[in-house]
Amino acid sequence: MTSLSELELVQRVYDRIAAAATDEQLEAELLRYLAPVINKLSSTQDAVRNTIVEMLGHVNRRVKDHHHIQLPVEALLDQFSSDVSAFVVNFSLVYIKMGFPRLDDNKQVELLPKLLSSLENKSSHLQDSLLRLLLPVLGLVKCSDALTSPLMSLREKPHIAKILLDYMQDILLLPYGATPRTREELLQRLQHQQQRQETLREEREQRQLNQPGGADEQDDEEEEEESNENLVPVPAVPAGMSIVSFRRAIGDHPLKPDDLETLKKTVIKFLDTEILTPSSMAHALMIATSDTRFTVADAADSLLRRMDGTIEWNSSPVISAMYVLFLGTLTPIERGPVERFKNPANTRIRLKLMPCFLKSREAANYSPLAVKVFCECLWGSHTNNRLKQQGITFLHHVSFSASTEKLKPVGSLLFSGVVKIIEEEKNNAKLTSLAYGALAKLSLKLPNLLLSHQHQLHYLMTLMDALSHEVGDVLLAIQEALSMVAPVCKQLTPASQDTLCIMLSEHVQSDNPALRRTAVHYAATVFSRTHCASRFIMLLATGDSEDDVRLEATRELYKSSGGDDSNSTPKFESPGFLPMLRFIVQRINDIPRSRWRDVATTSMPYTLKVMEELLLYLQHCLAVESGSNSTEAGGNSLSAVSSFKEGALMWPNCTAVGRFVEQTLGREEDGQDDPFAEYLRISEMAANAWSASAVEAIVRLVAVAPTTLARYYTDRMDWIRRFLVRGGHAGQVAALLYGIVAGQISDLSKFEHSIQLIRHHKEQRMESQECFILAMGHSLAFAQHRIKHDNDVIMEDRWLFFDNVVCGLVVQLVNSEGGTLLPSLVVAVGEVARHVPLPIPVFHDPPHPTWVPSSLLPDSSSHSAASQEQCEAQSASASETNTAAVAAAESSSVEMLSKIEEKPTVAAAERSEAKNIVKPTTAATTTAVAATKKEPKPGSLVNVVEILQHVYENNKLSSKIREQAIQSAGYLCVGDQHMHFKPAVMESLLELSKQSDEMEIHFSVGAALSDCVLGAQSVSSRNLWTQNDPNKEESDNKTSVAVADGTGAA
C-alpha cells in the first residue's frame, strides 16, 4: 500500500468516527477501527501518524466522560501482546486501561488469562500498569470454577505467576495511609542517613583515640540515638519493601485506606482459589497475617492454617523468601542497587514469621542467616519481649534440627549469645527459662561448647549454683538443662571428673532438693557403674527425704545393662566388693564421732536407711563379683538384691559366694585387716539399731563361710540373744545366725552352754519364745550336720543332752494345739529331722495323767519334772523298745494314720501293738476326760506325724504355716530314710494335693514328696548355705574358675 492510499484510509476512518452521531454509532466504529488505527502508528509517514494522533484525541474527548461506550479491549490485548513497536504498545495500553474497567465482570474475568499472558516479555512499567488493572478483578474468580479456569495455566508459567505474586506481596506490605514520595526524594533521604552514620562513626573513633577509658555513658547514649534514627536501612520506605516496590505499589494516586483494605481482601480471596501452588502463596499469606486490619489478617490466617499441611516448608524458595522478608536484602546496601534494597520486616511481620521458621527443619541449616535472625530477635531495633522469646525458641529449633557440620562454624557465637541472655535477662523468668534450655540443647549438639571455658566445669558450676537461688519455672528449666547436658560431662578430663565428684558429694547432702536430685543424676550418668565414689553418692541419696531422689538413686544403683531386649539376660556391673568396702570404711572413718547420729540406743555415721542401703549394695557387689547375682523367678531373671527385697534370705548361689569369701581370705596377706571383719562391723552398727536388714546381711555372710567367720560371734552369743529377746523379723533372722554360730562350736560343753542360754524362755514374751525355739532348732540342726560331715568327730555314746532338748521340742509341738508357738515348733523340729532321726520312740504307752509339760499347763508345775524324766528315760531306751514294734508298725502304718484323723483322746483309746488300730472311745472314758483336764500327748513319732498332718490339712490356718508343716513332714523322711510312716505320709500328701487348689500348697507337696522318695539322697539333706546341689556342681565349678582368674568380677 502506498503512503497516499494509507493516509486516505486513515482519513476515511477518521471521518467515519467523526461522523458518528450517537454513542452507539461511535462504539460500533471504535470496536471496528480503533485497534487497526493504533497499529498504523508504526507507519513511517509523519502525516499518517499525525492524523491518527489527532483522531485519537477526538476519540478521547468523546469517550472520556461516557463510560458506557465500550472499547475493543480484546483486540487491543492481542495487539499489545504481539511483536509491535513500542509506540503501538503504549497507545494500546492506554486504551486497554480505559476500556477494561468498562467491561462487565464476566468479561473481565474472561480476559484475565490474556491480561496475564500479556505480562510476558514486557517492561516493569508496562507490567505494573497491567497488574494494577487486573488485581481488583482477581476477586471475581469463583472458587468453584477455579479448577476448570484457564488461569490454572499459571502453574505451568512460574515466571508469570512470580510477577503476579511479587506485586501481590507489595500490595499486602503497603501500609494504610502511606504517603507517596518521588524517587529523588527517597534517594536523597537515604543519602542523608548514610552521611549521618558516617559522621557518627568517625566521631566515635576519634573519641576512642583521645579518651580510651572514658565517656562510656556518652557513647551508649549516642549509640542509642543513632539506632533510633536508623531503624531501617532505607528511610521513608515501609518494612519489607524497596524504593522500587514501594513506588510500584503506591503509584501516582495512592488508594484510600478502605480501598486498600478491599484490594488486600481481594488478593486473599484469589489465593483461596488455589490456582497457584500452596508453596508459592505461603510468602504472601505470611505477610497478610500480620496486617493491621483484622479482616485481612483473619482471612489470611485461616487460609494459611488450612494450607499448612500442603506447603513445602523445607523447600529452598520458601525458606529464602522468609529470610529475605525477615532480614531484608541479604547483600549489604553498599554492594547492590540502592533502589532495590529491601528493608527488614517490622516486629509485627517478624512475630508471624517466627512460627513458620519453626516448621522448617531445613531452615535451621542456613546457619549464618539463622544467627542473624536470632540476634535480630534478641537485640535488633524491631524487637519486644515476645519476639525475644520466639528468637530463643528458634535457637532451640536450630540446635535440634541443624546438622553438626552446618552449626559448628556459628556454634560459639550462638553459645555466647545464650550466656549473655542468661546474664542480662535475670528479671525475665520466661526468657531465662528458654535460654537455659537453649544452652543445654546447644551443648548436646556441640559438646565442646559447654567445656570450652579454661576451667571445664565453669558453666556447669554456674548452672548448679543457680539451683540454689532460682525458683519456679526458672528452677525447672535449670534442672532440665542440667539433666540434658549430663552426658556431655563424660568427656571431662580425669581431673575435672574428680572435682565434679567432690562437688556432687557436697550437693547430695545439701538442704536443697534440686541440688540433691541433680547430684544423683550426674553420679549415675557421668561415671561408670564400677566407679566407687559415684556409687557412694547415690547410696547417700537412698536415704533422702524426697521420694523421687530416693527412688532414682535406688534404681540407678541396681539397674542392669542387659539392653532393651526383654528376652536377653540382664548383665549387672558394680565396683569390686573389696574396693567398695574400703571406700565406705574410709568415708565412715573420716566422719568424726561427734557428728555421728543417735539412732535407737546406738550412734552411727549415717541414717539407718543409708546404713542399710550401704550393706545391701555391698551384698550386690559381692554377688556380682562372685557370679551369684541372678535367679529365675516366675520366668524373669531376678537380681540378688531384688530377691532380698522381696523377702529372700539366701543368695541365688550360696556356694559361689562362699568360695569367693574363702578365696579372698586366702589371698589376704598376714597383718592386713580382715575385710569381712570390717563388713561385719558396719553391719553391727545398723543391727544395734534393731535393723532386721543388717542382721540379714550378717547371716548371709557368716552362713556361706561358717568355718572362718562364725568365730567372730562364738564368744558373743549374748549379743545375738538380744535380738531373740526383742523378737520380730530381726529375732527370727538372729535365730538362724545363733544356730549357725552355735553349730560351729566343736566343744560339746560350750555348745550345751549356748543352748542353755536360750532353753529356758517361759518367762519371755511369745515373740521372744518363738525366736528362742527357732534358735534351738537351728543350733541342733547345724551341730548335727557338722558332726555328720566331720570325720574327726566320733560320738562313742548317745548324746543325751541333744536327745533331751529334742524331746522337749517334740513334746511342746505335739501338745501345742494350734497355739502361737506352733509355727516355730514345726520349723525347729523339721530342721532337726532334716539331718538326723528324731531321738523319740515310734510309739508310746499312754502316759500318766500327771505327765504334762509346764509350758502347756501352767498349774501343773509339780508334774513337769516327772514328764521330763519320763521323756528322757524313753529316749534313752528308744532303740530297744522300737525294734519290736517296727515289724508290726510297718505293715499297718497306712491304716493307723487314716484312723488318727478321728483324734481319740489318749485316756479313751489304747494302742494295739500288732495292728495299731485305734479303739473307739467308750462312754466311761469320755466322762472321765470331761471331768478332768485334757491329758498331754507323749512325744512319739506317731504324735509328731499326727500334729503335722492336722496342721497342713487345716484350711483355717494360714498357707505359710501349712507349707512349713508339709515341709517338715518331708524332712522326717530325709533325716530318717527308714521312717516307719513314710507310705502313710506320702498318701496323706497326695490326698492333700487333690483337695487343695492353692498353688503354693502344691509346690510344697511336690517338694515334700521328693524328700520322702529320695530320703537321705534329697537335696534337702545338705546345708543349703555351704553345699551345692549336685546337679549344679559342674556349672558352679566353672564359675569358681572364672572368679579365681578374675574374669567373674565386674
From TrEMBL:
The keyword Transmembrane helix does not apply. Residues 198-207 have a biased composition (Basic and acidic residues). It comes from the Eukaryota. Residues 188-234, 853-884, 1024-1050 are annotated as: Disordered. GO terms for biological process: ERAD pathway; proteasome assembly. GO terms for cellular component: cytoplasm; nucleus; proteasome complex. Keywords: Proteasome, Repeat. Residues 10-541 form the Proteasome component Ecm29 N-terminal domain. Residues 188-197, 860-884 have a biased composition (Low complexity). GO terms for molecular function: molecular adaptor activity. Residues 216-228 have a biased composition (Acidic residues). Residues 653-781 form the ECM29 ARM-like repeats domain. Pfam families: ARM_ECM29, ECM29_N. PANTHER family: PROTEASOME ADAPTER AND SCAFFOLD PROTEIN ECM29, TRANSLATIONAL ACTIVATOR GCN1-RELATED. This is Proteasome-associated protein ECM29 homolog.
